[in-house]
Design a protein that fits this description.
Length: 522
Protein backbone atom coordinates (compact mmCIF):
# COMPACT_ATOMS: atom_id res chain seq x y z
CA UNK A 1 0.00 0.00 0.00
CA UNK A 2 2.63 2.47 1.08
CA UNK A 3 4.87 1.63 -1.84
CA UNK A 4 1.95 2.29 -4.21
CA UNK A 5 1.47 5.74 -2.68
CA UNK A 6 5.12 6.51 -3.18
CA UNK A 7 4.76 5.71 -6.88
CA UNK A 8 1.22 6.66 -7.85
CA UNK A 9 1.55 5.61 -11.49
CA UNK A 10 3.15 2.24 -10.78
CA UNK A 11 -0.13 0.37 -10.62
CA UNK A 12 -1.37 1.91 -13.85
CA UNK A 13 1.78 1.45 -15.87
CA UNK A 14 1.41 -1.04 -18.69
CA UNK A 15 3.91 -3.86 -18.72
CA UNK A 16 7.13 -2.58 -20.29
CA UNK A 17 6.81 -2.54 -24.06
CA UNK A 18 8.98 -5.09 -25.81
CA UNK A 19 11.80 -3.66 -27.94
CA UNK A 20 10.35 -2.23 -31.16
CA UNK A 21 10.29 -4.86 -33.89
CA UNK A 22 11.97 -3.97 -37.17
CA UNK A 23 8.65 -3.00 -38.86
CA UNK A 24 8.03 -0.35 -36.24
CA UNK A 25 11.52 0.99 -36.70
CA UNK A 26 10.98 1.24 -40.44
CA UNK A 27 7.65 2.96 -39.88
CA UNK A 28 9.19 5.54 -37.54
CA UNK A 29 11.98 6.10 -40.05
CA UNK A 30 9.40 6.70 -42.79
CA UNK A 31 7.52 9.23 -40.65
CA UNK A 32 10.67 11.14 -39.73
CA UNK A 33 11.83 11.16 -43.32
CA UNK A 34 8.48 12.18 -44.72
CA UNK A 35 7.75 15.19 -42.49
CA UNK A 36 8.41 18.58 -44.04
CA UNK A 37 10.03 19.84 -40.81
CA UNK A 38 13.76 19.31 -40.56
CA UNK A 39 14.65 16.85 -37.79
CA UNK A 40 18.05 15.99 -36.38
CA UNK A 41 19.33 13.96 -33.46
CA UNK A 42 22.81 14.63 -32.06
CA UNK A 43 24.89 12.88 -29.45
CA UNK A 44 26.71 14.67 -26.65
CA UNK A 45 29.72 15.20 -28.87
CA UNK A 46 27.59 17.06 -31.41
CA UNK A 47 27.66 14.20 -33.95
CA UNK A 48 24.54 13.55 -36.00
CA UNK A 49 22.97 10.20 -35.10
CA UNK A 50 19.90 10.67 -37.26
CA UNK A 51 18.63 13.33 -39.64
CA UNK A 52 15.79 13.39 -42.14
CA UNK A 53 15.77 14.51 -45.74
CA UNK A 54 14.44 17.98 -44.95
CA UNK A 55 17.37 18.54 -42.59
CA UNK A 56 19.95 17.30 -45.10
CA UNK A 57 18.33 19.64 -47.62
CA UNK A 58 18.91 22.65 -45.37
CA UNK A 59 22.62 21.76 -45.40
CA UNK A 60 22.52 21.21 -49.14
CA UNK A 61 23.68 17.62 -48.54
CA UNK A 62 22.34 14.05 -48.32
CA UNK A 63 21.19 12.10 -45.27
CA UNK A 64 24.04 9.61 -45.59
CA UNK A 65 26.63 12.36 -45.83
CA UNK A 66 25.38 14.20 -42.77
CA UNK A 67 25.05 11.22 -40.40
CA UNK A 68 28.18 10.66 -38.36
CA UNK A 69 29.47 14.19 -39.05
CA UNK A 70 30.03 16.66 -36.25
CA UNK A 71 27.72 19.70 -36.54
CA UNK A 72 30.16 22.28 -37.88
CA UNK A 73 27.45 24.98 -37.98
CA UNK A 74 27.12 24.82 -34.15
CA UNK A 75 30.73 25.71 -33.42
CA UNK A 76 33.94 23.80 -32.67
CA UNK A 77 32.39 21.35 -30.20
CA UNK A 78 29.44 20.51 -32.43
CA UNK A 79 27.05 21.99 -29.82
CA UNK A 80 25.78 25.57 -29.77
CA UNK A 81 25.53 27.63 -26.57
CA UNK A 82 21.75 27.13 -26.60
CA UNK A 83 22.17 23.38 -26.93
CA UNK A 84 24.62 23.25 -24.03
CA UNK A 85 22.05 25.18 -21.97
CA UNK A 86 19.31 22.71 -22.95
CA UNK A 87 21.47 19.80 -21.78
CA UNK A 88 22.28 21.56 -18.51
CA UNK A 89 18.69 22.52 -17.71
CA UNK A 90 16.94 19.52 -19.21
CA UNK A 91 14.34 21.90 -20.62
CA UNK A 92 13.38 22.44 -24.22
CA UNK A 93 14.28 25.67 -25.97
CA UNK A 94 12.53 27.46 -28.84
CA UNK A 95 14.15 30.13 -30.97
CA UNK A 96 13.95 31.71 -34.35
CA UNK A 97 17.09 31.80 -36.47
CA UNK A 98 17.96 32.85 -39.95
CA UNK A 99 20.35 30.78 -42.04
CA UNK A 100 21.46 30.87 -45.64
CA UNK A 101 20.35 27.99 -47.83
CA UNK A 102 21.66 27.93 -51.39
CA UNK A 103 22.20 31.68 -51.33
CA UNK A 104 18.78 32.65 -49.90
CA UNK A 105 17.99 33.65 -46.31
CA UNK A 106 15.50 31.31 -44.60
CA UNK A 107 13.81 31.95 -41.26
CA UNK A 108 13.61 28.84 -39.10
CA UNK A 109 11.67 28.22 -35.93
CA UNK A 110 13.77 25.70 -34.01
CA UNK A 111 12.79 23.59 -31.00
CA UNK A 112 15.56 21.72 -29.20
CA UNK A 113 15.03 19.18 -26.42
CA UNK A 114 17.22 16.57 -24.72
CA UNK A 115 16.74 12.83 -24.84
CA UNK A 116 17.90 10.31 -22.27
CA UNK A 117 19.25 6.78 -22.27
CA UNK A 118 17.59 3.86 -20.43
CA UNK A 119 19.19 4.93 -17.13
CA UNK A 120 17.83 8.47 -17.46
CA UNK A 121 21.09 10.32 -18.18
CA UNK A 122 21.10 12.82 -21.04
CA UNK A 123 22.32 11.14 -24.20
CA UNK A 124 21.88 13.86 -26.77
CA UNK A 125 19.60 16.39 -28.36
CA UNK A 126 16.70 16.42 -30.76
CA UNK A 127 16.16 19.43 -32.99
CA UNK A 128 12.99 20.14 -34.96
CA UNK A 129 13.22 23.06 -37.38
CA UNK A 130 10.30 24.55 -39.24
CA UNK A 131 10.80 26.90 -42.16
CA UNK A 132 8.69 29.99 -41.38
CA UNK A 133 10.10 32.25 -44.10
CA UNK A 134 6.87 32.46 -46.11
CA UNK A 135 4.68 32.85 -43.06
CA UNK A 136 6.81 35.68 -41.67
CA UNK A 137 6.71 37.38 -45.04
CA UNK A 138 2.92 37.19 -45.22
CA UNK A 139 2.65 38.40 -41.64
CA UNK A 140 4.75 41.44 -42.41
CA UNK A 141 2.60 42.21 -45.43
CA UNK A 142 -0.58 41.92 -43.40
CA UNK A 143 0.87 44.19 -40.73
CA UNK A 144 1.87 46.72 -43.35
CA UNK A 145 -1.58 46.54 -44.93
CA UNK A 146 -3.19 47.10 -41.54
CA UNK A 147 -0.99 50.07 -40.94
CA UNK A 148 -1.76 51.54 -44.36
CA UNK A 149 -5.45 51.07 -43.76
CA UNK A 150 -5.19 52.71 -40.35
CA UNK A 151 -3.24 55.62 -41.79
CA UNK A 152 -5.80 55.99 -44.56
CA UNK A 153 -8.66 56.17 -42.10
CA UNK A 154 -6.68 58.45 -39.87
CA UNK A 155 -5.83 60.80 -42.71
CA UNK A 156 -9.53 60.95 -43.62
CA UNK A 157 -10.55 61.76 -40.08
CA UNK A 158 -7.78 64.31 -39.68
CA UNK A 159 -8.65 66.04 -42.95
CA UNK A 160 -12.25 66.30 -41.77
CA UNK A 161 -11.18 67.67 -38.40
CA UNK A 162 -8.82 70.09 -40.02
CA UNK A 163 -11.55 71.45 -42.25
CA UNK A 164 -13.70 72.09 -39.20
CA UNK A 165 -10.87 73.91 -37.51
CA UNK A 166 -10.06 75.92 -40.61
CA UNK A 167 -13.70 76.91 -40.89
CA UNK A 168 -13.55 78.21 -37.35
CA UNK A 169 -10.27 80.04 -37.89
CA UNK A 170 -11.26 81.57 -41.23
CA UNK A 171 -14.69 82.49 -39.91
CA UNK A 172 -13.35 84.41 -36.94
CA UNK A 173 -10.59 85.97 -39.02
CA UNK A 174 -13.24 87.33 -41.38
CA UNK A 175 -15.24 88.68 -38.46
CA UNK A 176 -12.11 90.50 -37.32
CA UNK A 177 -11.45 91.74 -40.84
CA UNK A 178 -14.89 93.32 -41.07
CA UNK A 179 -13.84 95.70 -38.33
CA UNK A 180 -17.35 96.23 -36.97
CA UNK A 181 -16.69 94.36 -33.74
CA UNK A 182 -16.57 95.41 -30.13
CA UNK A 183 -13.43 94.99 -28.07
CA UNK A 184 -14.95 91.98 -26.28
CA UNK A 185 -15.92 90.31 -29.55
CA UNK A 186 -12.44 90.96 -30.85
CA UNK A 187 -10.86 89.32 -27.81
CA UNK A 188 -13.23 86.35 -28.20
CA UNK A 189 -12.45 85.94 -31.89
CA UNK A 190 -8.72 85.98 -31.24
CA UNK A 191 -9.15 83.41 -28.46
CA UNK A 192 -11.07 81.10 -30.78
CA UNK A 193 -8.50 81.45 -33.52
CA UNK A 194 -5.66 80.61 -31.14
CA UNK A 195 -7.55 77.66 -29.72
CA UNK A 196 -8.41 76.33 -33.17
CA UNK A 197 -4.82 76.60 -34.31
CA UNK A 198 -3.57 74.92 -31.14
CA UNK A 199 -5.92 72.01 -31.70
CA UNK A 200 -4.69 71.73 -35.27
CA UNK A 201 -1.09 71.73 -34.03
CA UNK A 202 -1.96 69.04 -31.52
CA UNK A 203 -3.50 66.94 -34.26
CA UNK A 204 -0.45 67.09 -36.47
CA UNK A 205 1.69 66.07 -33.50
CA UNK A 206 -0.58 63.09 -33.01
CA UNK A 207 -0.31 62.12 -36.66
CA UNK A 208 3.46 62.35 -36.55
CA UNK A 209 3.54 60.31 -33.37
CA UNK A 210 1.41 57.68 -35.07
CA UNK A 211 3.76 57.38 -38.03
CA UNK A 212 6.88 57.11 -35.88
CA UNK A 213 5.56 55.41 -32.79
CA UNK A 214 8.51 53.04 -32.86
CA UNK A 215 11.05 55.84 -32.42
CA UNK A 216 10.41 56.29 -28.72
CA UNK A 217 13.43 57.16 -26.58
CA UNK A 218 12.89 55.88 -23.03
CA UNK A 219 14.53 57.84 -20.22
CA UNK A 220 14.07 58.13 -16.47
CA UNK A 221 11.16 60.54 -16.09
CA UNK A 222 10.18 62.22 -12.83
CA UNK A 223 6.42 61.82 -13.14
CA UNK A 224 5.52 64.51 -10.61
CA UNK A 225 7.70 67.09 -12.34
CA UNK A 226 6.44 66.08 -15.79
CA UNK A 227 2.87 66.51 -14.59
CA UNK A 228 3.56 69.96 -13.17
CA UNK A 229 5.23 71.01 -16.45
CA UNK A 230 2.34 69.69 -18.45
CA UNK A 231 -0.04 71.88 -16.51
CA UNK A 232 1.55 74.93 -18.08
CA UNK A 233 1.07 73.51 -21.56
CA UNK A 234 -2.50 72.44 -21.03
CA UNK A 235 -3.99 75.41 -19.29
CA UNK A 236 -4.02 77.69 -22.32
CA UNK A 237 -5.67 75.01 -24.46
CA UNK A 238 -8.53 74.40 -22.06
CA UNK A 239 -11.67 76.46 -21.98
CA UNK A 240 -11.73 78.96 -19.13
CA UNK A 241 -14.83 77.23 -17.73
CA UNK A 242 -12.69 74.21 -16.86
CA UNK A 243 -11.09 74.25 -13.46
CA UNK A 244 -7.80 72.34 -13.80
CA UNK A 245 -5.89 71.20 -10.70
CA UNK A 246 -2.68 69.17 -10.60
CA UNK A 247 -1.42 67.28 -7.55
CA UNK A 248 1.90 65.50 -7.37
CA UNK A 249 2.77 65.63 -3.69
CA UNK A 250 5.21 63.37 -1.87
CA UNK A 251 7.46 62.35 -4.77
CA UNK A 252 5.42 59.84 -6.77
CA UNK A 253 8.64 58.44 -8.28
CA UNK A 254 10.13 57.83 -11.70
CA UNK A 255 9.22 55.72 -14.71
CA UNK A 256 11.47 54.74 -17.61
CA UNK A 257 9.53 55.91 -20.65
CA UNK A 258 9.47 58.30 -23.57
CA UNK A 259 8.51 61.63 -22.11
CA UNK A 260 6.85 62.83 -25.30
CA UNK A 261 4.61 59.77 -25.38
CA UNK A 262 3.69 60.29 -21.74
CA UNK A 263 2.77 63.92 -22.37
CA UNK A 264 0.78 62.88 -25.38
CA UNK A 265 -1.11 60.21 -23.46
CA UNK A 266 -2.03 62.66 -20.72
CA UNK A 267 -2.98 65.37 -23.18
CA UNK A 268 -5.27 62.86 -24.90
CA UNK A 269 -6.97 62.09 -21.59
CA UNK A 270 -7.26 65.78 -20.78
CA UNK A 271 -8.73 66.64 -24.19
CA UNK A 272 -11.26 63.81 -23.81
CA UNK A 273 -12.15 65.04 -20.33
CA UNK A 274 -12.64 68.58 -21.55
CA UNK A 275 -14.82 67.31 -24.39
CA UNK A 276 -16.94 65.50 -21.81
CA UNK A 277 -17.55 68.88 -20.12
CA UNK A 278 -18.78 71.15 -22.90
CA UNK A 279 -20.18 73.64 -20.42
CA UNK A 280 -17.29 73.42 -17.99
CA UNK A 281 -16.44 71.49 -14.87
CA UNK A 282 -13.56 70.20 -12.81
CA UNK A 283 -10.51 68.33 -14.06
CA UNK A 284 -7.96 66.85 -11.66
CA UNK A 285 -4.58 65.30 -12.50
CA UNK A 286 -2.76 63.41 -9.80
CA UNK A 287 0.35 61.27 -9.39
CA UNK A 288 0.99 58.98 -6.43
CA UNK A 289 2.90 55.86 -5.39
CA UNK A 290 1.00 52.57 -5.56
CA UNK A 291 1.92 48.98 -4.74
CA UNK A 292 0.02 46.04 -6.17
CA UNK A 293 0.47 42.96 -3.94
CA UNK A 294 0.18 39.37 -5.08
CA UNK A 295 -2.86 38.98 -2.79
CA UNK A 296 -4.53 41.96 -4.44
CA UNK A 297 -6.92 39.88 -6.53
CA UNK A 298 -9.12 42.87 -7.33
CA UNK A 299 -6.30 44.41 -9.36
CA UNK A 300 -5.75 43.30 -12.93
CA UNK A 301 -2.21 44.72 -12.84
CA UNK A 302 0.84 42.53 -12.28
CA UNK A 303 2.06 42.76 -8.67
CA UNK A 304 4.78 45.37 -8.24
CA UNK A 305 5.58 49.02 -7.58
CA UNK A 306 3.87 51.62 -9.71
CA UNK A 307 3.49 55.31 -10.22
CA UNK A 308 -0.24 55.81 -10.48
CA UNK A 309 -1.47 58.70 -12.59
CA UNK A 310 -5.11 59.66 -12.23
CA UNK A 311 -7.13 61.82 -14.58
CA UNK A 312 -10.52 62.65 -13.17
CA UNK A 313 -13.23 64.82 -14.69
CA UNK A 314 -16.71 65.85 -13.55
CA UNK A 315 -18.08 65.44 -17.09
CA UNK A 316 -21.00 63.49 -18.52
CA UNK A 317 -19.40 60.09 -17.94
CA UNK A 318 -20.17 57.04 -20.05
CA UNK A 319 -22.38 53.99 -20.12
CA UNK A 320 -21.30 50.34 -19.99
CA UNK A 321 -21.42 49.94 -23.78
CA UNK A 322 -18.97 52.81 -24.28
CA UNK A 323 -16.80 51.64 -21.41
CA UNK A 324 -16.50 48.22 -23.04
CA UNK A 325 -15.15 49.53 -26.36
CA UNK A 326 -13.24 52.57 -25.19
CA UNK A 327 -9.75 51.40 -26.11
CA UNK A 328 -10.66 50.06 -29.54
CA UNK A 329 -8.99 51.93 -32.39
CA UNK A 330 -11.49 54.12 -34.26
CA UNK A 331 -14.17 53.73 -31.61
CA UNK A 332 -15.72 57.14 -31.06
CA UNK A 333 -19.08 58.43 -29.90
CA UNK A 334 -18.37 61.89 -31.24
CA UNK A 335 -20.32 63.30 -34.18
CA UNK A 336 -18.96 62.77 -37.65
CA UNK A 337 -15.54 64.29 -38.08
CA UNK A 338 -15.14 65.44 -34.50
CA UNK A 339 -13.42 62.33 -33.14
CA UNK A 340 -10.81 59.99 -34.57
CA UNK A 341 -11.34 57.27 -31.97
CA UNK A 342 -7.56 56.85 -31.87
CA UNK A 343 -6.75 58.75 -28.70
CA UNK A 344 -7.42 56.07 -26.13
CA UNK A 345 -6.13 53.22 -28.26
CA UNK A 346 -2.81 55.05 -28.38
CA UNK A 347 -2.87 55.65 -24.63
CA UNK A 348 -3.60 51.96 -24.13
CA UNK A 349 -0.73 50.96 -26.41
CA UNK A 350 1.65 53.28 -24.57
CA UNK A 351 0.73 51.99 -21.12
CA UNK A 352 0.74 48.29 -21.96
CA UNK A 353 4.02 48.52 -23.87
CA UNK A 354 5.57 49.80 -20.64
CA UNK A 355 4.21 46.76 -18.84
CA UNK A 356 1.68 48.95 -17.06
CA UNK A 357 -2.05 48.89 -16.71
CA UNK A 358 -4.93 51.27 -17.42
CA UNK A 359 -8.50 51.17 -16.16
CA UNK A 360 -11.51 53.41 -16.09
CA UNK A 361 -14.32 54.06 -13.62
CA UNK A 362 -17.31 55.91 -15.01
CA UNK A 363 -21.08 55.99 -15.20
CA UNK A 364 -23.46 58.38 -16.97
CA UNK A 365 -23.67 61.64 -15.07
CA UNK A 366 -20.98 60.81 -12.49
CA UNK A 367 -17.79 61.86 -14.24
CA UNK A 368 -14.89 59.69 -15.26
CA UNK A 369 -11.69 58.48 -13.61
CA UNK A 370 -8.83 57.04 -15.65
CA UNK A 371 -6.05 55.31 -13.67
CA UNK A 372 -2.70 54.61 -15.31
CA UNK A 373 -0.37 52.28 -13.44
CA UNK A 374 3.14 52.81 -14.77
CA UNK A 375 5.93 50.49 -13.53
CA UNK A 376 8.01 52.49 -11.05
CA UNK A 377 11.75 52.63 -11.65
CA UNK A 378 14.19 52.38 -8.72
CA UNK A 379 16.13 55.28 -10.27
CA UNK A 380 15.93 58.60 -8.45
CA UNK A 381 14.56 61.62 -10.29
CA UNK A 382 17.16 63.12 -12.62
CA UNK A 383 18.41 66.51 -11.48
CA UNK A 384 16.35 69.31 -12.97
CA UNK A 385 18.06 71.98 -14.92
CA UNK A 386 17.64 75.11 -12.85
CA UNK A 387 14.60 76.91 -14.08
CA UNK A 388 15.28 80.27 -15.63
CA UNK A 389 13.19 83.09 -14.35
CA UNK A 390 11.32 84.18 -17.45
CA UNK A 391 12.68 87.58 -18.45
CA UNK A 392 9.85 90.04 -18.88
CA UNK A 393 10.95 91.20 -22.32
CA UNK A 394 13.28 88.67 -23.97
CA UNK A 395 14.43 90.98 -26.74
CA UNK A 396 17.68 92.40 -28.07
CA UNK A 397 19.31 94.45 -30.78
CA UNK A 398 21.41 91.78 -32.50
CA UNK A 399 21.18 90.88 -36.18
CA UNK A 400 19.22 87.77 -37.04
CA UNK A 401 19.28 86.16 -40.48
CA UNK A 402 15.85 84.57 -40.91
CA UNK A 403 15.58 81.88 -43.59
CA UNK A 404 12.25 80.24 -44.27
CA UNK A 405 10.61 79.28 -47.56
CA UNK A 406 7.08 79.46 -46.19
CA UNK A 407 6.13 83.11 -46.63
CA UNK A 408 3.54 83.24 -43.83
CA UNK A 409 5.79 81.59 -41.27
CA UNK A 410 8.65 83.93 -42.20
CA UNK A 411 6.39 86.93 -41.78
CA UNK A 412 5.24 85.90 -38.31
CA UNK A 413 8.81 85.18 -37.19
CA UNK A 414 9.98 88.55 -38.56
CA UNK A 415 7.21 90.42 -36.74
CA UNK A 416 7.98 88.66 -33.48
CA UNK A 417 11.69 89.43 -33.69
CA UNK A 418 11.33 93.02 -34.93
CA UNK A 419 8.79 93.82 -32.24
CA UNK A 420 11.44 92.77 -29.72
CA UNK A 421 14.10 95.03 -31.17
CA UNK A 422 16.17 92.70 -33.34
CA UNK A 423 17.50 93.64 -36.74
CA UNK A 424 16.11 91.03 -39.12
CA UNK A 425 17.52 90.03 -42.51
CA UNK A 426 15.20 87.82 -44.52
CA UNK A 427 15.80 85.11 -47.10
CA UNK A 428 13.51 82.60 -48.75
CA UNK A 429 15.99 79.72 -49.02
CA UNK A 430 19.60 78.73 -48.43
CA UNK A 431 21.02 80.07 -51.69
CA UNK A 432 19.18 83.35 -51.28
CA UNK A 433 20.45 83.53 -47.67
CA UNK A 434 24.06 83.36 -48.85
CA UNK A 435 23.41 86.35 -51.13
CA UNK A 436 21.70 88.30 -48.35
CA UNK A 437 24.56 87.51 -45.96
CA UNK A 438 27.17 88.64 -48.50
CA UNK A 439 25.36 91.96 -49.04
CA UNK A 440 24.83 92.59 -45.32
CA UNK A 441 26.92 95.13 -43.47
CA UNK A 442 28.22 94.07 -40.07
CA UNK A 443 28.12 90.73 -38.31
CA UNK A 444 25.30 88.18 -38.28
CA UNK A 445 24.71 87.13 -34.70
CA UNK A 446 22.16 84.41 -35.25
CA UNK A 447 20.99 82.27 -38.12
CA UNK A 448 17.35 81.29 -37.63
CA UNK A 449 16.65 78.87 -40.44
CA UNK A 450 14.21 76.26 -41.53
CA UNK A 451 15.85 72.82 -41.51
CA UNK A 452 14.15 71.33 -44.55
CA UNK A 453 14.36 73.61 -47.61
CA UNK A 454 14.76 73.15 -51.32
CA UNK A 455 18.23 73.45 -52.88
CA UNK A 456 20.21 73.72 -49.64
CA UNK A 457 19.04 72.62 -46.21
CA UNK A 458 19.44 74.67 -43.05
CA UNK A 459 22.35 72.64 -41.84
CA UNK A 460 24.38 73.00 -45.03
CA UNK A 461 23.62 76.72 -44.98
CA UNK A 462 24.80 77.00 -41.37
CA UNK A 463 28.07 75.27 -42.17
CA UNK A 464 28.75 77.46 -45.20
CA UNK A 465 27.96 80.68 -43.35
CA UNK A 466 30.02 79.69 -40.31
CA UNK A 467 33.18 80.05 -42.41
CA UNK A 468 32.54 83.79 -42.78
CA UNK A 469 30.74 84.35 -39.44
CA UNK A 470 32.45 82.06 -36.94
CA UNK A 471 30.71 83.60 -33.91
CA UNK A 472 27.25 83.19 -35.43
CA UNK A 473 24.78 81.09 -33.41
CA UNK A 474 22.43 78.68 -35.18
CA UNK A 475 18.81 77.88 -34.39
CA UNK A 476 17.12 75.47 -36.78
CA UNK A 477 13.35 75.19 -37.11
CA UNK A 478 11.49 72.17 -38.36
CA UNK A 479 7.99 70.80 -38.57
CA UNK A 480 9.38 67.40 -37.69
CA UNK A 481 9.93 66.83 -34.00
CA UNK A 482 13.12 65.52 -32.44
CA UNK A 483 15.68 66.74 -34.95
CA UNK A 484 14.82 64.16 -37.59
CA UNK A 485 13.34 65.09 -40.90
CA UNK A 486 13.27 63.23 -44.22
CA UNK A 487 16.81 63.40 -45.55
CA UNK A 488 18.28 65.38 -42.66
CA UNK A 489 19.38 64.38 -39.18
CA UNK A 490 19.98 67.60 -37.32
CA UNK A 491 23.51 68.02 -36.04
CA UNK A 492 23.42 68.07 -32.23
CA UNK A 493 25.78 71.07 -32.29
CA UNK A 494 22.90 73.20 -33.53
CA UNK A 495 19.96 74.34 -31.48
CA UNK A 496 16.59 73.15 -32.60
CA UNK A 497 13.06 74.55 -32.45
CA UNK A 498 10.08 72.52 -33.55
CA UNK A 499 7.19 74.08 -35.46
CA UNK A 500 4.57 75.22 -34.84
CA UNK A 501 5.89 77.49 -32.11
CA UNK A 502 4.38 80.28 -30.09
CA UNK A 503 5.83 83.78 -30.50
CA UNK A 504 6.91 83.86 -26.87
CA UNK A 505 8.77 80.56 -27.29
CA UNK A 506 10.52 81.80 -30.43
CA UNK A 507 11.58 85.00 -28.66
CA UNK A 508 12.87 83.10 -25.64
CA UNK A 509 14.83 80.56 -27.69
CA UNK A 510 16.41 83.27 -29.84
CA UNK A 511 17.50 85.14 -26.70
CA UNK A 512 18.86 81.95 -25.10
CA UNK A 513 20.86 81.07 -28.19
CA UNK A 514 22.40 84.51 -28.40
CA UNK A 515 23.24 84.50 -24.70
CA UNK A 516 24.94 81.15 -24.92
CA UNK A 517 27.08 82.61 -27.68
CA UNK A 518 28.13 85.47 -25.46
CA UNK A 519 28.94 83.65 -22.22
CA UNK A 520 29.84 80.10 -23.20
CA UNK A 521 33.17 79.05 -24.65
CA UNK A 522 32.58 78.01 -28.19
P1 LIG B 1 -12.27 60.30 -29.68
O1 LIG B 1 -12.00 61.27 -28.56
O2 LIG B 1 -11.65 60.73 -30.96
O3 LIG B 1 -13.70 59.93 -29.81
P2 LIG B 1 -10.89 58.44 -27.97
O4 LIG B 1 -10.22 57.13 -28.23
O5 LIG B 1 -10.04 59.49 -27.34
O6 LIG B 1 -11.49 58.94 -29.33
O7 LIG B 1 -12.14 58.19 -27.05
C1 LIG B 1 -13.11 57.22 -27.41
C2 LIG B 1 -14.44 57.47 -26.78
O8 LIG B 1 -14.36 57.27 -25.38
C3 LIG B 1 -14.97 58.88 -26.92
O9 LIG B 1 -15.63 59.06 -28.16
C4 LIG B 1 -15.93 58.98 -25.74
O10 LIG B 1 -17.18 58.38 -26.03
C5 LIG B 1 -15.30 58.11 -24.68
N1 LIG B 1 -14.56 58.89 -23.68
C6 LIG B 1 -13.22 59.03 -23.60
N2 LIG B 1 -12.88 59.79 -22.54
C7 LIG B 1 -14.02 60.15 -21.93
C8 LIG B 1 -14.35 60.95 -20.74
N3 LIG B 1 -13.37 61.52 -20.03
N4 LIG B 1 -15.64 61.09 -20.44
C9 LIG B 1 -16.61 60.50 -21.17
N5 LIG B 1 -16.39 59.76 -22.27
C10 LIG B 1 -15.11 59.57 -22.65
MG1 LIG C 1 -10.10 61.69 -27.82
Amino acid sequence: MSSREADPVAHEAAPRAPAAPPEVHALLRAIVDGTPDAICVKDLQGRFLLVNRAFADLRDSTVDDVIGQRDSAAGRDGLSADEVAVLASGESHAAETTIEVRGAARTLHAITFPFHDASGTPAGLVGVLRDTTERRHVERQVQQAHKMEAIGRLAGAVAHNFNNLLTIILGYAEVLGDGAVTATEQREAVDEIVRGAERAAWMTRQLLAFSRAHNATPRVVDVGAALMDLQGLLRPVLARTIDLSVHAGDDPGTVVMDRGQFEQALTTLVVNASEAMPSGGRLRLEALRTRVDAEDVASAATPGDYVEVRVWDSGHGMDAATRGRLFEPFFTTKPDGMGTGLGLSMVYGFVTQLGGHIDVTSAPGTGTLFRLLLPRSPEPAPARRPRQVAPPQPGGSETVLLVEDEEAVRQVARLVLQSRGYRVLEARDGVHALEVARAAAGPIDLLLSDLVMPRMNGQQLAETLAEVHPAMRVLLMSGYPDRVAPGVDADPRFEFLSKPFQPSVLARRVRECLDRGRTGPD
